[in-house]
Amino acid sequence: MFQRKLVCLAAAAALSLATLPAAAAEKRTLCVFDIVGQSGDVFNMMRDYRTAALAWGVDFDLKVYTDEKITTEDLKAGQCDAAAITGIRGRSLNSYTGSLDSVGSLPSYRHVQEVIKILSSGHPKINEKLVSGQFEVVGVAPMGAAYLFVKDRSINNVNKLAGKSISVMEYDEAQAKMAARVGMSPVLSDITNFAGRFNNGNVDICFAPVIAYSALELYKGMQANGGIVDYVLGQLTLQIITRHERFPAGFGTKSRQYILTQFDQAMRIIENAEQEVDQKWWIRIPEADRVRYDAMMRESRIALRDEGVYDADMMRLLRGVRCKLDASRAECVNPQE
Amino acid sequence: MIPTAFLPSPSAALRAVLLGASLLILQGCGMVYKTTGDVLMGFGRSEMLPHMMADDDTRIACAAGEAQTPLLLAFERVGSNPDKLAVLMYVTASSCTDDLALEQELRYLRAVKQGNVGEAQDARILQKRYAAMSAKRQYEAYRRLMSAFNNPKDGECPKLKKEFDQLVWMIGMVGGVQALLNDSVADGSVGVPRDIAAKVERGAACLNNDQWWGAPRGIRASIWNILPMLAPANAQSWEELQKAADAGFRDGVRLGSAMYVLAAYSKGDDAHLRKAIRDFAANDKKINPEYRMMDVMAGSIISGISDRMWTEATGRRTPLGGLGTFWDDAAKSQPTMNIDDLL
To answer: Minimal Cα distance from A42: which residue of B?
Structure first.
């Protein structure tokens, strides 16, 4: 009799624990950078993330930021327990995942998906790279490929870039260095003025993700004879970074696996944006040039790695992914990354 | 008794009926239908619209929008052009799905607060479905707006001589922005073009700001605020939004105020948001009777945002009559005098 009561009591206790996630969930702040604020795609995605996180014992308070620099600083200062920011901005917190956006390292979305799968795999050697000091990268989602938008389609060859002005993001060391390597004059810009400079004709070229094409009307800057060079220069990513000591054990793994399941949702937004691009703008480049650019990008990545901008381990991983998907690439014979 | 001489013989009567029916089928239907359609468009524009604009019942407007849109658009098949009225009908119909989406968002917020994951996820799914329907309706309104004004070239204004045309233009512009916002909620499933925001920013400048209660400038300033890269140099978006809100209070149609609230909400700027909601609630005495519906719709946008704030903080929406107040306001029951001075 006593035993039966004990079993009943234990069962009731277990049941009450199972149905009381609210009481168990810890309150944490997630600072979300979305250029459009609470009405934007990233914030919308984070609303779903918040719901998923409840099941892992964390009740997020979402705080929107329209300035990415402040988002990052608030995370560093401990004002936010976690933040959703771009990989380029996150490079200062984790150079491994911050190097996902390196130049020419992920030529297609297939490559992006494979890398995100690897990062979400839970492999101990990968997991240890995702933690850097107080910070842990607990999710990576695609934000779209970035291209060169040019005012004049005759700029269809890298040799013609010399002497041209280009707006580059002031906080991405790699962009300015890359521009300078090919003889371009980088004009340091931020997210609020780079498109205006291109559309008003103040710069010849701008480096931008395809999702900016329609929203920022980059087609205006390309009138009448410009175009988009059909070569993926980089892949933008959204990264969720936590101050890991403020989260329950295992949170990172669950979070990364969840964000991986959101890949298709993120891709839908990117694909919509790409569909808006009028086909006439694409400047197709010959295969021979593409191979040459691949080699140039590799040289640039190696140089930036040696300068400490890109993480060597991530460069090795990305080369491995490229070679797994296409073993005929020149870099696979003589690996230098 | 009727003289049989005035009655046709049965066979003659049958022939006449058949002839009449054939004529009607061969040429009459289209003509009759088109004429009916044109009359309906004219009636809708000159009588039904002013009636609806003066009403303040949003549920009737929503039901009318959903129920009458198919009837109105069916006349397109017989040659009538319902584009301008369709802009108004689709935007009005989208207010129904906007309400449904809001209810699900509030359910999501309550479920999250209670830690009920399944309920929260289900509410989000339903919110997205309704938001997608809204985005589809609002984008259709915007598409028909462009068609109604012969797809004006970017940066050029169409002829907007009549007040009706101006009203359609303004509502279609707001519909375009709403389509974009709802498509974001719906994970981009509708595929609303992202450059609508920039186009609306320019399109709103085609309207006389003073004539339309400061709303055109308010629409533009809310876009400058949310997307600063679309703002002209030295734009002071908060000041502009304040002017738009004030013009709305002065003229009795508080659409500018709704633009202010939307911008502040999107930015997550709590101080501006609370101020704008309080200002809206405090200026409800002088409403323009001809455009009461526009004011009520502005009020729906604002009360929806207030409900989100209240629910997030307390688990329940804005109390009845409580718009402009917040859960953490200092209690009114506290004495305003220093009790120590009185003792």
So the answer is: B184
Cα(B324)–Cα(B277) distance, integer angstroms: 5
Residue with tokens 């000091």: A133
Q: Find the distance separating the first CA and the last CA of chain A, reported in whole Å.
A: 69
Q: Which A residues in the span 59-118 are in contact with B, Cβ-Cβ below 8 Å?
A: 59, 63-66
Residue B138's alpha-carbon distances to A239, B58, B90, B175, in angstroms, are 32, 17, 6, 5
- Residue B116 DSSP SS3: coil
- The model's pTM: 0.86
- Report which DSSP code applies to A155: -
* Smallest CA–CA distance from A57 into chain B, residue: B115
Distance between first and last Cα of chain B? 104
Residue B3, pLDDT > 50, answer no
User: How far, in Å, CA of B149 to CA of B84, rounded?
Assistant: 9
Backbone angles phi, psi at A260, to 5 degrees: -60, -40
| Contact check, Cβ <8 Å, B124/A192 | no
Q: What angle do CA B183, B186, B189 make, to 5 degrees?
A: 75
Q: What's the CA gap between A68 and A239, in Å, rounded?
A: 12
Average pLDDT over chain A, rounded to whole?
A: 91
What is the C-alpha separation between A120 and A318, in angstroms, rounded? Answer: 15
Residues A123 and B118: their CA atoms lie apart, in Å, by 29
Q: Is the peptide bond before A224 cis (omega within 30 degrees of 0)?
A: yes
DSSP state of B161: -
Reported ipTM: the value is 0.84
Residue-wise pLDDT for B16-53, tens only, equals 666 666 655 656 667 788 888 888 888 888 888 999 99
Expressed in percent and rounded to 5, the helix, strand and coil fractions of chain A are: 50, 20, 30
Substitution target in A28, A41, A42, A44 with the highest count of B β-carbons within 10 Å is A44
Residue A208 phi/psi, 5° resolution?
-150, 155
The whole-number average pLDDT for the span A278-286 is 94
Residues A279/A61, Cβ–Cβ less than 8 Å: no
Cβ neighbour number for residue B332 with a 10 Å cutoff? 7
Q: For chain B, list residues whose CB is within 8 angstroms of any CB belonging to chain A.
A: 108, 112-117, 120-121, 124, 181, 184-185, 187-189, 191, 193-195, 197-198, 226-230, 265-268
Contact B203, B215 (CB under 8 A): no
Asked if pLDDT for residue B92 goes beyond 80, the answer is yes
Q: CA nearest B85: which of B50, B45, B140, B133? A: B45
Kindly report, residue by residue over A123-169, the tens digit of the pLDDT. 999 999 999 999 999 999 999 999 999 999 998 888 888 999 999 98
pLDDT one-digit tens code per residue, A50-82: 999 999 999 999 999 989 999 999 999 999 999
Contact B227 A265 (CB under 8 A): no
How distant is the Cα of B191 from the closest Cα of chain A, in angstroms?
6
d(Cα A234, Cα A107) in Å, to the nearest integer?
8
